[in-house]
Amino acid sequence: MKRAITDPAHPLHGQRPARARLKSRNSFLHKVEPLSGTPENARMQAWLCVSPKDFILPKEGIPPGGTWGWPAWKTLNRLRVGVGRTKDNLERWGMLTVEDTRCDCGEPQSMEHLLSCPLAPRCSRDEVLIAGPAALDVASFWSSTV
Predict the structure, then answer these.
(1) Quick count: other Cβ atoms within 10 Å of Cβ 67?
(2) Which domain holds residue 35?
(3) Residue 104 lies in a domain
(4) Is the pLDDT reported for residue 53 higher than 70?
(5) What is the 3-state secondary structure (H, E, C) of 38-75?
């Protein structure tokens, strides 16, 4: 946006957003604010405003565990962000096909529970973040479920 305002060679320089013809269609030019700093700082601020308790700083690269097979890699990332196809999430999304939200061990099945289920390998949240060997065991175990 800043470049469109300041650079005369930019295709959007001097352009005003078109008037919306349909209520459901909005140009991004009506919604964005010009950057006050560098794009890198703006991206960091956007990421930090939604930071969970255990936040991994964003970087341009693949997080640890990227060499694992796809099912384990996918499950590891779902464990990292805390969103997966556990029974509690499926119920909340209206996609649960059974009435029971409990795991086979009898506890409510949630993303936190997957790390400490007595029927599966266990690992800590820190182990998931660094993609340690215990995290690979847990991710491999739950890859067909989550």
Answers:
(1) 8
(2) 2-48
(3) yes
(4) no
(5) CHHHHHHHHHHCCCCCCCCCCCCCCCCCCCCCHHHHHH
